[in-house]
Specification:
The chain contains 9 helices and 9 strands. It is an alpha/beta fold and 246 residues long. It has 2 domains: 2-158, 3-Layer(aba) Sandwich (Alpha/beta knot); 183-245, Trp Operon Repressor, Chain A. The strands form 3 sheets. It has a 5-stranded parallel beta sheet. The N and C termini lie far apart (56 Å). The structure holds S-adenosylmethionine. Belongs to the RNA methyltransferase TrmD family. This is tRNA (guanine-N(1)-)-methyltransferase. InterPro entries: Alpha/beta_knot_MTases, tRNA_m1G_MeTrfase_C_sf, tRNA_m1G_MeTrfase_TrmD, tRNA_m1G_MTases_N, tRNA_MeTrfase_TRMD/TRM10. Homodimer.
Amino acid sequence: MRISILTIFPDFVRVVKEYGVVSQAVENGILEIEIFNLRDFAKDKHKTVDDYPYGGGPGMVMKPAPFFEFFKFYNETYGKPYVVLTSPQGDVLNNSIARELASKDHLLIICGRYEGIDERVMKFVDREISIGDYVLTGGELPAMVIVDVVSRFVPGVVDEESVKNDSFYNDLLDHPHYTRPRVIEDMRVPEVLISGNHEEVELWRRKESLKKTMLKRPDLFMKHQFDEIDKRALLSLFRELMADAK
Ligand SMILES: C[S@@+](CC[C@H](N)C(=O)[O-])C[C@H]1O[C@@H](n2cnc3c(N)ncnc32)[C@H](O)[C@@H]1O
């Protein structure tokens, strides 16, 4: 998959491809991440990318001309990508949007700055994506978040089983995790995890996952489609709660 980022701060976003599984995926040729500097497409000698807003008011607006120049170059060179504009006004990013974006061969993410971009640039945009109901100073952090979360759904970037067990995959939160040592300051790893009984381990993990979701995110719990393991896990949770109540 090819992901391109258009920004006025290329050094800011470059780190997204330099660490962890994303950098490994780039090295292995599973992901291609390219960063473009919008200033390179500004025609004047000062490489201006912003201007005063028509109608007055505070702040500056990103000029349309460098974007038009950029898309002329980009579409001719690489073909038309699926274009995402980072914007607090967009659809709020979640797992299902990330999965959908990961199915595109070619994604281009635009980072806004100032008061935002000239509205006429919207003719190039397929989807506006927000990373939450707050306003950041620029689209670079949202672009990096989008690259990171989308990458996890690109086959081969992370172990598919691990993605399936992560929070939100099936409207459930992840179960608790433990590693060595078995005991630290009198706190023990639950016995079932060292029993070697895989079926029991899976049931315990599902029970804990359901419990966490019920307590922390009842909205997700209500959406979850319960399968046979869930039913057994809920029965086990119910027994546990009854035993605690005695
Ligand atoms: C200061 S913001 C502009 C906010 C704009 N005036 C508004 O109120 O809708 C500058 C840029 O940061 C990015 N941005 C800010 N908050 C964001 C969010 N929650 N999600 C995604 N992008 C965001 C967008 O690219 C935006 O164009």
